[in-house]
Design brief:
single chain; 326 residues; alpha/beta; Rossmann fold; 7-stranded mixed sheet; two-stranded antiparallel ribbon; 11 strands; 11% strand; globular; binds iron/sulfur cluster; binds zinc ion
Length: 326
């Protein structure tokens, strides 16, 4: 098998693109895919300093590396989820990357900064992944705004997006379908949220990290069991094996043909969002979902009110640490 670009021996085959690459040309391919995605969706403006959400896994570290190599002054933010040794090791990978590349990593920790961990939230009959996703969305957005970043980058890849799309279609969830875009606009309490890896699959981000010698968290999260998206990923992988390109076609077809029809459908588009009575975040209710989750996870007897029975407030920036160069 030869590299399509330079005819050297190929190290990776990409059946979805009917092609194969040597190591150097594969890195070029990844950079091209990400650069084109950023440009196509106007994800990052000239001179804008993006904040990259880092989990310590292959996707977010590959995305950070790619952004830096494409010339973006991207800083990172890592949220400790309190999932035992798994979270400890994830944090170590994030810090090691920041240190090696001499870049800034903002850190915050769910347990010390908010008062609960994902296993504690799960003990209150919350699905761990829903509590986790909600916490990440809320806290990473808050940190971005507090530190003056206008764009928050996440490492969602094609496999993630295709699996989420599959789940949203299975439930015909129009609110989520309307918001499933590579770019969600900023303003009204939101930093712009962008996903520059949507044209790269998991296999590609893993190969990218191996070739670039980026160490990343390979353990599966111990709370992942029962995660519906993992099931959807398995299904889509089987379809992809039989018919390479299925995921790209499914996701890109949605963006091309279906997404435009959903314009104006989401709560944000309709202007239905007010402010949370406690933290001020955008919400359709009196209290935002994250404040309700915090009440539930820190005090199961607590009945959520705008001020909270104990006037609980998230602690301020004093506990947040920054590693790497500024
Ligand atoms: S598997 Fe679930 S709980 Fe674990 S990090 Fe992912 S979203 Fe969070
Ligand atoms: Zn080549
Ligand atoms: Zn709130």
């Amino acid at each position: 098998m030869k590299c399509r670009r330079c005819r050297a021996d190929a190290v990776i085959e990409l059946p979805q693109h009917r092609t194969a690459f040597c190591a150097e040309c594969f890195l070029h391919h990844c950079r091209q895919q990400v650069r084109r995605t950023i440009e196509k969706y106007s994800m990052i403006g000239a001179g804008e300093r993006p904040l990259m959400a880092i989990s310590g896994g292959k996707d977010s570290l590959a995305a950070w590396d790619l952004l830096l190599d494409l010339g973006y002054d991207a800083d990172g933010v890592y949220l400790g989820l309190g999932i035992g040794g798994y979270s400890d090791r994830s944090g170590e990978y994030a810090r090691a990357f920041a240190h090696q590349r001499g870049v800034k990593l903002i850190e915050l920790d769910l347990a010390t900064d908010v008062g609960f961990t994902i296993p504690e939230a799960a003990a209150q009959r919350r699905t761990p992944c829903s509590a986790c996703g909600l916490s990440k969305r809320h806290l990473l957005n808050t940190v971005a705004l507090e530190h003056g970043y206008t764009v928050l980058v996440t490492g969602h890849n094609l496999d993630d997006e295709a699996a989420v799309l599959f789940g949203n279609v299975m439930r015909w969830d129009t609110e989520y379908l309307a918001r499933q875009q590579p770019v969600l606009p900023g303003g009204d309490g939101f930093a712009r949220r962008v996903k520059p890896l949507v044209r790269l699959g998991e296999r590609e981000t893993a190969a990218y990290c191996i070739i670039r010698r980026i160490d990343y968290q390979v353990e599966e999260c111990p709370m992942a069991e029962g995660n519906r998206h993992l099931g959807y990923k398995e299904l889509l992988n089987r379809m992809e094996e039989r018919s390479p390109g299925t995921k790209l076609e499914f996701y890109n077809g949605f963006l091309r043909r279906m997404q435009p029809l959903l314009d104006g459908v989401s709560s944000q588009d309709k202007g239905d969002l007010g402010s949370c009575g406690r933290c001020g975040s955008p919400t359709t209710g009196e209290l935002c979902a994250f404040c309700r989750l915090t009440d539930q996870a820190t005090d199961p007897q607590h009945r959520s009110t705008p001020r909270g029975r104990r006037g609980r407030k998230r602690r301020n920036n004093s506990r947040r640490q920054v590693v790497g160069a500024g």
